[in-house]
């Protein structure tokens, strides 16, 4: 049975995230979080790991940063071993396009999927949430592009409480045929339990849209 | 008597209304015909330009047909909420 999956709308590791981060730690059964700052590769990834360290230390857990920053890093045996041993993997925010380019068709991505399939908890925030699904909202203009497809027929709009209206309009214009567009506010998580059920936690709101109409979480794939 | 406070949503054609009451059941209507038996939803659909209504817990989202005016819809929702 696969592990718990959390799609966070941004603002990770800040006040408001405590309830679901505690739940994710409990679900994982781990006291260490493996943090991938890949999407922040060009925006001080060390700072992202440090922020995560401070945050999870307050929740009684430690953080190990896995510095997968460029494509060759996703083929590093030591990095693959770290993924295989991890019980809680957290992909932080930044550039979803860079993140996708590093992970797509890589051995590291295969290892992440395998770990999640085997029961590890997997979380992705902002860019991390966007790339886990397919299609992916292109952050540059709101069009739909390829994601990594851990969750299919779902496209994530993170930072939904502050997202560009023009980008959102583009996304909704293109999202036909029953594609679920999910708006997730910052410091808010859409969580998929191991049994396939979905629920929302955190400071803000999660909205699911199909063909322009809000439908609720039961409109998500199982 | 409840109040409904509008706020934007990620969908440019939808407004979310925060209620100060909790809905007893989920609302989901895509036409006036579907909403005929629900006083709140029927009142909202009586305004031109309403495409769908979704509500759960303490919020209701109203989706408009593209190009419809928001002001009459907002007024209708806030008036109808008084009967929740």
- Helix content estimate of chain B: 10-25%
- Helix count from the secondary structure assignment of chain B: 2
Q: Categorize the overall geometry of chain A.
A: globular
What is the succession of H and E elements of chain A?
Answer: EHEHEHEHHEHEEEEEHEEEEE
Radius of gyration of chain A: 16 Å
Indicate the low-confidence ranges of chain B by residue numbers.
none
Summarize the main sheet of chain A. Answer: 7 strands, mixed
| Structural class category of chain B | alpha+beta
Order of helices and strands of chain B: EEEHEEH
Number of strands of chain A: 15
**Could you tell me the strand content of chain B as a percent range?**
25-35%
Q: Biggest interface, which chains?
A: A-B, 17 and 18 residues
Note down, in words, how this protein is organized.
The complex is a heterodimer of chains A (222) and B (84). Chain A is an alpha/beta fold. Chain A contains 7 helices and 15 strands. Chain A has helices at residues 18-28, 45-57, 77-85, 96-103, 107-117, 127-132, 165-174; strands at residues 5-8, 32-36, 62-65, 88-91, 121-125, 133-134, 136-137, 144-145, 151-152, 154-157, 180-184, 188-192, 198-202, 206-210, 213-214. A 7-stranded mixed sheet of chain A has the order 3-2-4-5-1-12-13, sandwiched between helices. In chain A, strands 10-11-14-15 form a 4-stranded mixed sheet, with helices on one face. In chain A, strands 6-9 form a two-stranded parallel sheet. In chain A, β14 (206-210) and β15 (213-214) form a beta hairpin. In chain A, α3 runs parallel beside α5. The longest helix of chain A is centred in the first third of the chain and has 13 residues, at 45-57. Chain B is of the alpha+beta class. Chain B is built from 2 helices and 5 strands. Chain B has helices at 39-45, 70-81; strands spanning 4-8, 14-19, 27-29, 50-56, 59-64. In chain B, β4 (50-56) and β5 (59-64) form a beta hairpin. In chain B, α1 runs antiparallel to α2 (70-81). Chain B is globular, with a radius of gyration of 11 Å. The interface between A and B is medium-sized, with 17 and 18 residues.
């Amino acid at each position: 049975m696969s592990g718990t999956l959390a799609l966070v709308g941004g603002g990770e590791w800040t006040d408001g995230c405590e309830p679901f981060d505690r739940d994710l730690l409990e679900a994982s059964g781990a006291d260490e979080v493996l943090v991938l700052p890949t999407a922040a590769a060009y925006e001080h990834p060390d700072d992202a790991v440090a922020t995560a360290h401070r945050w999870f230390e307050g929740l009684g857990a430690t953080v190990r940063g896995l510095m997968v920053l460029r494509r060759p890093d996703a083929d590093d045996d030591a990095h693959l071993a770290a993924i295989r041993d991890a019980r809680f993997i957290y992909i932080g925010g930044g550039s979803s396009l860079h993140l996708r380019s590093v992970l797509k068709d890589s051995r590291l991505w295969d290892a992440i999927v395998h770990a999640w399939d085997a029961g590890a908890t997997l979380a992705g925030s902002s860019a991390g949430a966007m790339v886990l699904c397919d299609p992916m909202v292109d952050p540059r203009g709101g069009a739909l592009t390829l994601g990594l497809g851990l969750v299919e027929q779902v496209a994530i709009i993170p930072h939904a409480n502050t997202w560009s209206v023009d980008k959102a309009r583009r996304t909704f214009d293109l999202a036909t045929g029953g594609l679920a567009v999910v708006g997730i506010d910052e410091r808010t998580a859409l969580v998929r339990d191991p049994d396939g059920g979905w629920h929302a936690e955190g400071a803000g709101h999660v909205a699911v849209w199909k063909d322009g109409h809000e439908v609720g979480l039961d409109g998500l794939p199982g | 008597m409840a109040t409904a406070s509008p706020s934007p949503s990620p969908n440019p054609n939808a407004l979310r209304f925060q209620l100060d009451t909790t809905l007893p059941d989920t609302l989901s209507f895509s036409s006036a015909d579907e909403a005929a038996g629900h006083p709140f939803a029927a009142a909202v659909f009586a305004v031109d330009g309403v495409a769908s209504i979704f509500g759960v817990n303490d919020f209701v989202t109203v989706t408009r047909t593209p190009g419809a005016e928001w002001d009459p819809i907002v007024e209708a929702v806030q008036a109808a909420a008084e009967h929740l």
